[in-house]
Every structure is written in C-alpha cells, then in structure tokens.
Amino acid sequence: MEEVFKDPVPFSKGVRLQDLINGESEFHIDLDFKKTQMGLMGACDDDLFPDMEENDNDTDDMKLLEDSMEAVVLSCPEYRSFDDLASKMIDCVPSGDVKMLIIEEGSGCLIPPDAVVTVHYAAYFEKARIPFDSTLTMNNGLPLKMQLGKGRFIPGLEIGLTCVHGPKAHFQLMLSPRVAWGERGALPRIRPDRALFVIQLYDVTDVSAPARFNDLPMEEQRRFQVTMETVKSIHSQAKELYSKKKYLKAIRNYQQSVSILNISNTRDEEEENNVKDLKIKAYINLAVCYYKLNKPKYVLNMCESLDYLTDTDKHSKILFYYARAHEMLNKYDQAVTYYRKALKIEPHNKEIGDALTNLDKYNKKSAVTEKEIWRNVFKTDVDKKVRYSVDRDFQNGVLDMCQELAGKVEYSRFDLPSGLTKDELECIKDLCSKFEGLVVMETGEGKKKNVSIVKRLSS
Predict the structure, then answer these.
(1) Residue 159: which of 208, 213, 90, 207 has the closest Cα?
(2) Highest mean pLDDT of the ranges 105-109, 330-334, 402-406, 432-436
(3) Which of 332, 92, 85 is nearest to 196 (CA)?
(4) pTM score, two decimals?
(5) Which residues have CB under 8 Å from 98's CB, separation 6+?
(6) Average model confidence (pLDDT) for the chain?
(7) Which end of the chain, N or C, is less packed with Cβ atoms under 10 Å?
(8) Where are the beta strands (DSSP E) in 28-78?
(9) pLDDT reading at 241 higher than 60
C-alpha cells in the first residue's frame, strides 16, 4: 500500500472547488488508476485529438517536457523575482490581479469572450524551474482545446486570453491567487501564491462570427478580414458537426462559407489565394459529406466544381472522391481510372490502395459471374440431356397421341392412366412440350393424382 502513495494519486472523480473550500468534500481514491489526462483547468469535453500511448510515471512526463519542441517555448523565463518580472508586465485589469507580457504578438483580432481556443501552457510558482501543471503532461501531450466563458479555465486565464490577438500569440500571465484557485489555494499541490503561466496560443475559433456577420452592412461583410474570420469559424463548427455525424448541418455550413467567400473583396494575389484555398477545402468537405449520405451525383457535382478552382489531377483527395462517386454509380472502369490517378500521387496511401484492390477483386468476380450468365442464356437445346428411361414403344405411343391431339381444332383432353412411373411422366411432359398448344395438367396428390394432356385453343 505504501508503494502506491509514493507518487500523486488521482481521485476517482473530480472535486468542485466550492466544496473543497467549504470542507464538505468526500474523497474516493482509485488505487487502480491510469495516468490522469486532466490538468488543474478541469476536464476537457471537446478533445478531438486521436488517442496516443500514455506514460505511466512522472519521469516519463518530465522527459516528454524536455524532449518536445513546445517545452522550449513553455520553459520558465529568466527573472530575478516575480516582482521584477511583474514590473515589465502590463495590467489586464485595474486591480493588477492579472498581468501580461507579450513575447510574440498574435495575428487577427482580440479573442472574443466565447471563442474556442487551442493552447499549450506551463504554470510555475516563483523560483521553480519545473512547472506544477502543464498541458504537455496531460491530454496526451497535445494542445488543450476549450471554449471560453464556460467556466473551464480559471478566471485569470479567461481574462488574459481575451486580452491578446490570436492566433499564434506567445505570452506570459502572472495571476494572483484571487483569480486563480482562491486565497487558500488547493494544498498540497496548489499553494496560495502567485503563479506564472507561459502560454502558446495555436488556434482561435470565433463561434459567434457567423451570427455577427449577418448583422453587418454589405460593405463590411465583403471585407477580406471579416470573410476570413467568419469562414474559419463556420468551417470549425462544420468539422464539429461532421464528427457528430450531423452531415446535413455540416453541408449547410460549408455551403454558407462558399457564399461568403464569393463576395470577399481581395486586394492582392495572396488574399485571392487564401480565398481559393478555403473554397477548395469547402468543396472537398462537401464531397465527403455527400459521400457519407450516399449521394454520388452530388459528390460528382462538388468534384466538378473543383475543376474550376484547381488542377484536380494534382489533388489525390479530389481524385479519390471522384472514384468513390463513380464506384457508387457502378461505373467501375471510371472509378479504377481515378483511383489509379490518386494512388500515383500518393503511392503509400493505404486507403486508396485498399479501395483499388477491393474494386479489382469485385471486377474479376463480376466478370466470372457475367460469363456464366451469358453461357446459360446462349445454351441450346442440344446441351440439354433428357434424363428419363422408358422403352421405345411407350415413347412412340405418346408421340402418336400428341400428334393426334395437336391436330384437333377444338379444345381436347386426354386423361392418362394411373400408375405412371416418374420416368414415364417426364417423357410425356418432354414430348408434349414439342407441340404447340399441348400442356400436361396434374391434379390431386399420391394415389389420387390425375394426369391429363390438354389441347388448348389458340387465342
């Protein structure tokens, strides 16, 4: 038991800060735990990143810190004291509880208070060289993606993040306990002291941009910067809808983004290329969504729209969905052609290779089946073998009877004697089939079975 508690042990479920302060929390410790993926900012419900192999001890986590490129960016800055560092910072709020130092200015506008942000951070106490909390040791070492205004970040971080331009900003925040984890901290790990956060901002999605766009005057809507920010927000939301398999709603988002891009005023070639790149992404994603909805003709329409924007023969993904659509329409030769073009661009792409292999197997199997069908269609009577055994006299007698009935001009019926063998009955049916208008009728079952040859009148 002692071995378990040599390292920090996570609780089996989260603890509310208010309960912790009031001393009313009941703790249940999970002794059979895996390394937690949650930092002190709380659980992230919006993690869209793939799972990766987890580390099981602190030394592995520290090695991850040392080896990663992000660790250099998030390393503790040089300073004599927090007071010395604070003197170089600006106040984000009049109280001075949140101070900021911009290392690298971000692009774009100030981050909205309800934006979705993607960040890496490392948090340090004064004089500490190793962070007491960092995204590099949780969330599988991937950046943390969360929405502001939802209470998932501590208050000081919410304030600081809305005071920078994003994305791509690199900055430091110094937070007092009052805007962090409270005046008491969360001992033993969180002391009631100032904390320094080193933050790298990777991405910002303004989730309210589409709603604001509709309220803008036309001239403002056409501004390049406005269209870019709005479309990026719409694409981010469409991606979220796609991940939840809400393909129709995602389609509406991508269609809206194309409409907005079509009215964008560009001033130079660079801006034109940015618009074109976003259009290409929109049409490709529309093709993917329509494929998921099993609408091959719409997939083809999206791919054909891309022909006006780019050289599709150089885009493996476009060629891949051209192939998918033709395959769904049973146009297998065209599908193979497009798959091969896509594979030529990305020869190691497993998905393209598998699709081409499966289609090739299907074509070979279909060729064999088709050959068999046509063989049966053109099979002549010569190939048919009569499988009954009766003597020649019986056959001649049946033949004479059939000729007599076939020569009659009115309806006629001849009842056959009972006790016929199976071979004799097969012989009668076979010979009757050679005369137009003659049919063999069977009624009853077993010993009560009656068999007759009937001459029907032609209609």
Answers:
(1) 90
(2) 330-334
(3) 85
(4) 0.52
(5) 91, 92, 156, 159, 160, 163, 173, 174, 175, 176, 179
(6) 80
(7) C
(8) none
(9) yes
